[in-house]
Amino acid sequence: MPELPEVETIVNRLSSKLRGLEVSSFNVLFAGILRCDEKCLERLEGKKIIRVRRRGKLVIFDFENGFSLLFHLKMTGQLILSHPDEPRDRHTHFIITFRNCSQELRFRNVRKFGFVCCLQSSEIEDFFELGAEPLSINFSLFKGLFEGRRARLKSLLTNQGFIAGIGNIYADEILFEAQLHPLLAASSLDEEELRKLWRSTRKVLRKAIQHRGSSIRDYRDADGEQGDFQSYHKVYGKESSLCPRCGGKIERLRLGGRSSYYCPSCQMRKGKN
DNA sequence: ATTCGGACCTGAAAGC
DNA sequence: TGCTTTCAGGTCCGAA
Predict the structure, then answer these.
(1) Could you say which DSSP state residue A110 is in?
(2) What sections of chain A are H helices per DSSP?
(3) Could you tell me the maximum CA-CA distance found in chain A, to the nearest angstrom?
(4) Which residue lies nearest B8, CA-to-C1' measured?
(5) What are phi and psi for residue A207, nearest 5 degrees?
(6) pLDDT for A192-235, tens place per residue?
(7) From residues 176-215 of A, which are strand B contacts by CB within 7 A?
(8) What global pTM score does this model have?
(9) Distance (Å) from CA A169 to C1' C10?
(10) Where are the beta strands (DSSP E) in A73-188?
(11) Helix, coil or strand: residue A86
């Protein structure tokens, strides 16, 4: 569920509250959420979190001893700071408590797709093989990525090994902003179109972060608050609505089992608009 | 080599 | 009303 803007929002919040704190204990309530040996967690008990960061859609806690704790929220994961006496429901699968902190961190995960694991901090990049960060990469590197790639734009944008952090919502919003059809072959774009795609990617993701992400159903930030950006979606989930740019009808197509929403008249397959 | 469908899970909403 | 089907911010795997 959460894509880059949602994960970024969670990380910002967690960072200000958890940086410098020492973990006192882990409580694994559903063993399936652990993607590593439970003994790995022992390495982190009594250790301080020196940094909370995002890489792609991963939430990462770096510890003082060179190990990191990683979370992937997948579709329905939530990392929420709560008071220990607040009742927890059956979807709370993992809890971290901290020394000198009145709140504990709960990992809720209705659909059980998400995971937690512990890795050496230096192993993370090799282990996940994520692509570039869309908000860090400059245009010339961005352009280079697309050279010779025949895949469809939508598939490439959501491919985490190509560019990390973009999922179904933001790919659709970015392609609408760039006025590019989701099924276009990446290698068919000229320089001007690539520049527009690069600019649109930055614009959409930044604006979504400013609005603390999109809450369509499950997403909540680390304080349990909803994001705002769903009110600014122009095409995602808007089949049959009117295109805010040209007044035409938004359509939905199926691509690898996922829905893609787009405006067939302003996101042309061919032509430069 | 790509692309697609199914699998992993649960629950809300829509359809009948 | 109540049962059935469809769909969901993700990603992996194996088969066409």
Answers:
(1) T
(2) 4-18, 38-42, 124-128, 139-146, 153-157, 168-178, 191-210
(3) 60
(4) A113
(5) -65, -40
(6) 999 999 999 999 999 999 999 999 999 999 999 999 999 999 99
(7) none
(8) 0.97
(9) 12
(10) 77-82, 92-98, 104-109, 115-120
(11) coil
